[in-house]
What does this fold into?
Amino acid sequence: MKAARLFAYDKPLKLVDVETPRLKNPADVLVRVTGAGVCHTDLHIVEGVWKEKVEITLPYTLGHENAGLVEEVGPAVSAVKKGEKVLLHPVITCGTCRPCRIGEDMHCENLVFPGISADGGFAQYIRTSERSLIKLNNLDPADVAPLADAGLTAIRAVKKAASRTTSASNVVVVGVGGLGHLALQLLRCMTNANIIAADVSESKLRLAEKMGAHRVVDALIIVGYGGTAHLKAIDVIFSEFSVLGSLVGNWDELRELVELTRQGKVRVLTKKGKLDEVNDMLDQLKKGTLEGRGVVIP
Amino acid sequence: MKAARLFAYDKPLKLVDVETPRLKNPADVLVRVTGAGVCHTDLHIVEGVWKEKVEITLPYTLGHENAGLVEEVGPAVSAVKKGEKVLLHPVITCGTCRPCRIGEDMHCENLVFPGISADGGFAQYIRTSERSLIKLNNLDPADVAPLADAGLTAIRAVKKAASRTTSASNVVVVGVGGLGHLALQLLRCMTNANIIAADVSESKLRLAEKMGAHRVVDALIIVGYGGTAHLKAIDVIFSEFSVLGSLVGNWDELRELVELTRQGKVRVLTKKGKLDEVNDMLDQLKKGTLEGRGVVIP
Amino acid sequence: MKAARLFAYDKPLKLVDVETPRLKNPADVLVRVTGAGVCHTDLHIVEGVWKEKVEITLPYTLGHENAGLVEEVGPAVSAVKKGEKVLLHPVITCGTCRPCRIGEDMHCENLVFPGISADGGFAQYIRTSERSLIKLNNLDPADVAPLADAGLTAIRAVKKAASRTTSASNVVVVGVGGLGHLALQLLRCMTNANIIAADVSESKLRLAEKMGAHRVVDALIIVGYGGTAHLKAIDVIFSEFSVLGSLVGNWDELRELVELTRQGKVRVLTKKGKLDEVNDMLDQLKKGTLEGRGVVIP
Amino acid sequence: MKAARLFAYDKPLKLVDVETPRLKNPADVLVRVTGAGVCHTDLHIVEGVWKEKVEITLPYTLGHENAGLVEEVGPAVSAVKKGEKVLLHPVITCGTCRPCRIGEDMHCENLVFPGISADGGFAQYIRTSERSLIKLNNLDPADVAPLADAGLTAIRAVKKAASRTTSASNVVVVGVGGLGHLALQLLRCMTNANIIAADVSESKLRLAEKMGAHRVVDALIIVGYGGTAHLKAIDVIFSEFSVLGSLVGNWDELRELVELTRQGKVRVLTKKGKLDEVNDMLDQLKKGTLEGRGVVIP
It folds into this structure.
């Protein structure tokens, strides 16, 4: 099959022929990818930021925001069957460790992260596991693939915010990109807070207004997860504020997000392309000229 | 193997020879039972109370509070291995439905309840699944088997109470039997409330004091889950009180309970016997003369 | 001043001249009533349902859903001043008992309930306390008086429901009257649940649809707080369901509700009349022909 | 009356004669101080650390951890009467702003902090308000004065920790001084976590063991609230950890703490002295040679 793979850091992905993955475990599922979102994390991987965080040797296939059609299921699979449209929760989990048992999938002690620590979805087929799948029914995989990572990260963060806000609260969304435009819509349907969107791009501020921001701010900022926060202890104590880490999201949060999308409360803005356009999309993402989320259709 | 089975309602269990169960699914585990608690629910099953609640045809093996040694594991099992001491969460769950995904095992959409809706642990061997097991390490299965149901039901209820109490609260434990004596100890280590124990038996009130009750009350009551509560709407509103159902407990609560037992904060009072003494124990339980929890060792 | 007072149970209120109330305590506030909602509880009071619940001797002035203009303030009052538009939290609280200290106003140990246990707002003036007031700023007191009881009761119940629902939940609102039509709107802005409204009246079901119900059900039911709930213990346990009492609401919930109204997310449907129309309104309420909430303007 | 006052930064307090405070507002209460704890914050005030945080001109009386006997009450006071033993919540609050209404006293919009932003309790008398008092009944004010700040700060932080821990959690208490020895005991009665105490002093580690630490660590650290935390964003995200500010505590938490002390679950280790020994105590506190909490008895 065709796959877009990373052969060397700081180089474009190469579109090559590789063997189609096969089922290994009884609960494995093979999915034909019909939508794979292009994410800032893909840029960071290419730049080598993740080199020391995960054990993987080049080359391998990127793409961690995947959706498609069930192609083949292992003998222990009962939840999905061939031909069904599915969204892939970004990680493969064991189901028996304590984090899995309390529903905290991202903290699975035996976690595999396709597209980051294993072959991902910038390919015609991807191997995943029954536990990672959510049925899409009447939703189109290519339209909603970005829910799997950008959307999931947004809903988990918004849920944390929601439990801390009232109608008198102000919430600032910093950056109205793939994740930000979904966070805005989720803040609208999960809180009654006053929502402020900040971005450096005029067109993204217009998008923010369309997506429900109550106020937009033209800010000279660049966002990401590469920085360091400096907190003076006395300020943290005086204002009694909290810094909360939030790591992607769990299966049930993804299920909730798919349901909100089905209800029409969340709409994913996508720009679709073919698999061989993935390097182009990564470039546009870097330059900040991509509106909404890029999705390749292998 | 030997098993104590129910052949007819309102009759004693019969000790008979049956085929030893075999593994069916890849994640199945066969456990040699070395401790099986005797519970009021066993009495209710014999009396036919559960006849219409579960689909099962007689005869079958009772016993839903089980612990023992791993005898054999299926090909997909990685969490336990032969010879390890284990406690069995009372139900077998699928791991992929929504309740399983958020950690609410008791509400699994594909739940099997050995000893109630399938063959249980009043037998030399029982078949369960990897997902249902908790390792006991240095704890003796026969000593802690009652944690699996009496203890688990107690910890879930106490956790609900704990989040609603302060040091100024009063909590009443009605009945100091197999469940009640564990609830008392859990209230001691999970709350700072004032604990009152009520029972009809003088010796059980003495036990309650030993287990940490701050006050005991000699009450003319008989407890169980057969009754009906009548709530006047205006009273519920005025006092803004709540009635909370609590159904056994989930895997992580059982893990927590095993840890508290290991720390010495919870001690299970057991009266041990052989498998052929199970009818005797059921009789004593009915008469209220059994102190702590009866445990048969098949 | 004019006041509509109850002189005898099961008789209409009489419009009479009484002395205008005076300030008694340093934190007292006198309010000129310009909107007082007419509530089912007024009917129940007239019927004598509350006779044994509160200590009060006839005659006295009804009306517990009040709004108006500050007329005079005691020497210890700093939060409001003469001429400001205010909504009255339904109860007068001491501010120093434990319930007051943790924000649970309705459970104040020294609570006074004007219109129920003291003279209420079916009058030109009412005496209340600084602690009970919320400023209305640009909102008209007569338009929002029903927030003080119907709305407040609704928001507290909806908040309890909100923390227990996801986008896949079903919530049923039984009765689309003064309280129900506000509950519907609050469910829309505080949850993503599927909302079902039940009523016996066709026009109220149409109202429910306009207010955001996803589905309406023509039901042969009459609702109120006079009944008794019968709960089989085994059902409560099996489904692990809860019955939660909910008593009006606290000051901060009323502040939140006023803010949601200001944001346009909640709209109170009122039918206004003069003080001498109060008996008419009570009649219509009894017959179920009043749409939205009746409000008298003394 | 006698008072220990700060006349110049970096200088010892001076014991001088000042006028006894008088009641100003209807809810004011005058308390005869019979116990006032000596705290690290007093050192920081002397060092000028707080100079820019609060508006106050020298000289003024320090002491923010106060207890004593009610001497005189204003006309609006009903909760306490002359002669009663009371503990003073560290701040004076208005009771009508939103933070006060939801029980978050420390965030009162009109807060006064005696001993920091007004005259404190290193004096024979202190003026406070009815809202700040908790009755001590049979507890001795000098024995429990440190509950008012050290203890209150500890219980609020421990409550935050408690809701995040299970019996498998590890909690580290850094520093076993006035606050730390109370935090240790609270962790014992409010959690089942494994408690580790770290300090630079051998005798304080022995104290920690006596107070219930499961493990002690001899650490080369000096604790305080003067520092800055540096958090790498990627680490916060990966481990999904939180940094939670915690600011002293509210009235109801202080009430809870007094109750736990009454139950014997918390014991305050104090070293008592006269008012003119306050500079000595501050010196010992600085050197780290004071065990438990210094309390002056004016």
Observations:
- The two ends of chain A are 10 Å apart (CA to CA).
- The CA atoms of residues 103 and 237 of chain A lie 32 Å apart.
